[in-house]
Design a protein that fits this description.
Blueprint (H helix, E strand, L loop, with lengths): L2 E11 L5 H5 L2 E10 L3 H6 L8 H14 L5 H12 L7 E7 L10 E7 L7
Antiparallel strand pairs: 1-2, 2-3, 3-4
Amino acid sequence: MDRIALSGIRAYGRHGVSAVERAELQPFDVDLAIDIDLDAAGRSDDLADTLDYARLHDRLVTVVTATSYALLERLASELLETVFADSRVRYAEVTVAKPRVLEGATPSVTLARANPRREPA
């Protein structure tokens, strides 16, 4: 399967269990890998035959900045839902990291799922 990856997305949001964590903007780092058939795009050189990762990037940043969740698990789940809006995506893996929240450690959550709305092959 072909893969598109977006790595090192940095967005600022208000996610965390405590009120202190939600009071101030904090950085969140997102890495994403998407399995999708890129054969048509490789032949056509047409953006319509692939996933527009610039637009996807903007939508992912919006999820981080415009929402507020207690858990990284929920944020990661919402990011996957954004990816799965494109039914051509077969599978995606997202990692959300929250740097600077713990002294000497960066917690992260990785979710890997098949797209429940995938087009039939």
